[in-house]
């Protein structure tokens, strides 16, 4: 479900507060049509997001969030697990908690640490709520979040939503799928082509809220002008191949690109919710800062992929 940047707050309750009342409030009504978010945008970035219920679901268990602070940007997508109410609540909690916790931390703390701590806090909030409310005992969510600051992309990732980098007409999947099928591909027991349609392609091995402490993949990579970052849930990347994603984000605004991704997936047919967030680097980054730190940051990214 889409939430505007202004709406992504904890309504006066700080992350981790014992007074939080997650699960006791009525959930928002199901989406009838796609909802979008678009930024007026910091000068360096153009960001837009879109979420759609799809053609065969009664409610949207996806959530998205965007936040801006000067020349930095934060974007997050989450795909809930655990049935109608539990999945929708888990993804909403993940987005709201992560954005609020990231904002609350001092900017003197490095962006990657703030993002990691915020993701862990989201995990704790969901885990605690699932313990307290028996009806929500199986709820959890995927979580893929990015923070771009000082010419650097930082990401925190759990589950099978994805983060792609589109650079100079080529696409790279920066995140790893935490699924049984992906594990078989990594162990050379299954080809990537067969994994796409394997019965276990959507069976998660890791999710936010399932356990008290979750293993979070951390990604770091320098960005450059012209880059496009695409975050999406499996309802979209299971339908569109990578060449289609490149084609659809090649031109136009980030908002229009996110809409095109959703529209194309719906045209091809999907039985799942669909969510996409697109972040373009449109301004000129300080070339000197990039040049001085690029080798170190690239080594950091390669280490995070090991």
How does this structure look, described?
The protein is globular. It has helices at 84-104, 111-132, 180-186, 192-195, 234-237, 242-249, 254-268, 287-305, and strands spanning 35-38, 45-52, 62-69, 72-81, 140-141, 143-149, 152-158, 162-167, 170-173, 217-222, 228-232, 274-281. Helix 1 packs antiparallel against helix 2 (111-132). The chain has 306 residues and is α+β, with helices and mostly antiparallel strands. Helices cover 33% and strands 25% of the residues.
Summed up, the helix count is: 8
| Gross geometry | globular
The strand count comes to 12
Overall residue-averaged pLDDT value: 81
Question: N-to-C SSE series?
Answer: EEEEHHEEEEEHHEEHHHEH
CATH topology: Phosphatase 2c, domain 1
Give the termini separation: 33 Å
Q: How many domains in all?
A: 1
Classification by helices and strands: alpha+beta
Measured on Cα atoms, how large is the radius of gyration? 18 Å
Query: Which strand-content bin applies to the residues?
Result: 15-25%
What structural keywords apply?
306 residues, alpha+beta, Phosphatase 2c, domain 1, six-stranded antiparallel sheet, 8 helices, disordered N terminus
Secondary structure layout:
Layout: E1 35-38, E2 45-52, E3 62-69, E4 72-81, H1 84-104, H2 111-132, E5 140-141, E6 143-149, E7 152-158, E8 162-167, E9 170-173, H3 180-186, H4 192-195, E10 217-222, E11 228-232, H5 234-237, H6 242-249, H7 254-268, E12 274-281, H8 287-305
Antiparallel strand pairs: 1-2, 2-12, 3-4, 4-5, 4-6, 6-7, 7-10, 8-9, 8-11, 11-12
Helix pairs in contact: 1-2
Give a summary of the structure in a few sentences.
The chain is of the alpha+beta class. It is built from eight helices and twelve strands. The strands form two sheets. It has a six-stranded antiparallel beta sheet. Strands 3, 4, 5, 6, 7 and 10 form a six-stranded antiparallel beta sheet that branches.
